[in-house]
What we know:
mainly alpha, transmembrane helix
Amino acid sequence: xxxxxxxxxxxxxxxxxxxxxxxxxxxxxxxxxxxxxxxxxxxxxxxxxxxxxxxxxxxxxxxxxxxxxxxxxxxxxxxxxxxxxxxxxxxxxxxxxxxxxxxxxxxxxxxxxxxxxxxxxxxxxxxxxxxxxxxxxxxxxxxxxxxxxxxxxxxxxxxxxxxxxxxxxxxxxxxxxxxxxxxxxxxxx
Length: 189
């Protein structure tokens, strides 16, 4: 049960890859009336749903890690390891919330913030791995035991496909145009 067979990978590719392929393809296809493509519709709606659920997923990961955190607390330097990991994950949660708010406000900064969120996935994972390994004085291989790499890699790849969509989509370009008040004042001067 611990390994993924080729059939599991094929099914995963079909379930995730095919919709994302069509999203990127439709974003690159010129529209008959590009000005009409605005708002949370089409593929952008799927992205909006995913972005809205991402902080909830992070909170669910916190809940799922509670037992592991309790076990770590009994080890030497365990509390420091737990608090450091919690701080990293809370910082990532804060970034997810900033990206969500910018998306809901239709801010012109959303594509850039979404890109930063994508970069944060491996950064948080690498920092967390180094933190746990150094604080608990265990090898990186022990920290990455089992399928610990699978979820971050899948998350990074899927989010990367959505980043490509965000930067190619006419709908995204038309939707995220709103500047904050200080930027509007500066551009008017």
